[in-house]
Amino acid sequence: MAMPAPISPASTERADATIRASWCSPVSPSGVAPSLLHQSARMLSLLISGFTSPPTMAAAPSNLPVPVPLPRISAFERRAFGMFVHWGLYSQLGQGEWVWTYHQQVRADYAKLKDSFTAAEFDATALVGAAKAAGMRYVCLTTRHHEGFSLYDTRGLNQWDAPHSAAKRDLVREFSDACDAAGMGKFFYHTTLDWWHPDFDAPGRWQDYLDYLNRSVELLCTRYGRVDGLWFDGNWARKDRDWKESDLYALIRRHQPEAIIVNNSSTGALGAEGHPEVDVRTFEQGRPTRPNRAGKPKWLAAEMCDTINSHWGIGARDLSHKSPAQIIDRLASCRRFGANYLLNVGPTAQGGLPGYDAELLKLVGRWAAICPAALYDARPTDLVGRGQDFIVQDGSTYYYWCHNLPIHGNSHLLEGDSGAGLKTIAGTLPAVKRIAWADQPEIDLAFTQDRAKDWLTWQATPFPYGSQLVWRIAVIETAG
Q: What is the CATH number of the domain that holds 87?
C-alpha cells in the first residue's frame, strides 16, 4: 500500500489552527461543530495542498481470488494475543533454553537436573490467570523443548519426563485443566529437534525417531481433552531430512480436527509458507508484514512470537527486559495486519512467574481492557491514516490506532510531539456519525467528511495530563 506523502508543517499548522478556532463552538447532534462545517472546504484544500502527490490507496487489486479463512483460523485470529511459556530442566541453570548447546560443560551432569526439578512453584491456575489478566486469549506451553525432557507423562516411551522427576506430576495435565477451567485457549508447543533422544542423529535411525515423535504427539492429542493448537519447532535444524509432515498432521487431524497447526519457520525465514496443513505463518522476533493472499490456496493466519528480554528460557543475568510500552507497540504492529502476538515468559527454576514479568503483564492488561473490540474482533482495512497510524474495522465501527500523541500540559514539563492535531483518513468510509476516544467515550471529537473525495479529517486531542497510553484508539461510528 502506498502511503501519502508527508504533510508539510505549514499546511498542518494552518489546518490545525482552523480546527482550534472552531473547537469551542457548539457541537451538532452529528458530532460536528457547525463552524467546522463552514470551514471544511478551506481545511481540505489546505491539507491536500500539503501533499507532494495525491494520497494513493492500495495498488490495483489482483483478479485472483482471495481464499476465505477456515472457521478455526478465523477463531485463532480473534484470539489476537497469547502467552508463550518456555520452561524445562534448563530453567534451573538460569542461562537460557539453549544452555545445552552454548555451555557444553553442563552436559555431564545434565541428567541430574531431573532429580532437582520439583516444580514446587508451578501453579498452572495462577499462570493462566496472569495471562487472562493481561488480555491474552491463549497460552502455549513447551510440553517438550529441544532438551527432550517432557512435562507430560510419556507413558512408557521413556522416563525422561516430569512424572519421573522430583516433581512426580504430569504438569501438562495441570496446565490443561487450568486452561479448561478458565476458558483459555490451550496450545501445546512440541519440539521436533531433540538433543537427548539417541535416534535423532543416529545413522539409519531416522524413521525410528519420527515414530517416537508421532507417538509423543499422539499422547498430547488424546489425553488432554480439547487441544486448540499444536506449535512445532525444529524442522529448520535438519533441512535435508524428510520430516514426513503429512503423517504427523494426519495424526493430529484424526484426533483434533479443529486444532491450529503451527510449524515455526524460525528467524531465517520469517513468514514463510509451509506444508498445506499448516495454518499459520510465523514471525519469530520479527514484525509481520502485509500479506498478499490473492490466488493462494488457503488463508493463512500470521503470528509473531517474541521474548520479554533476550532469552526464551529464564536468564538470571539477562537484564534486557522490554517495557510495557514496547510490548504494546509490538502488539499494535501485529494487529495492523491482523497478526497475533505471542509473548513469552520464562518461569523460574521451579515454575514461578518472575516478578517483572508478572507486573508487566498487569500493565499491558490495563491497556488491552480499554478497547477490546479494536484489539480482538476488528480486521485490517486499506484505509490510509497519517504516519504510523492505521485503521481497523468491525462491522459499521472503525478504530483509528493513533501513535505518538503528546500529553496536554505546560511545555516546560512535557516534551512536544507532532502526533496530535488534525488527523486524516483517505479511502471509502460510510457516513460518519461520531468519533470519540475509547478511553474518553463521553467526549465527541470534531470531524468533517467529504465522501465524494473519500476524505475524512478529525481532531486528535492530546492525552489529558496524567495519562499516556502509548497507542490511543479512536472509535469511529458510521451509518454502515
A: 3.20.20.80
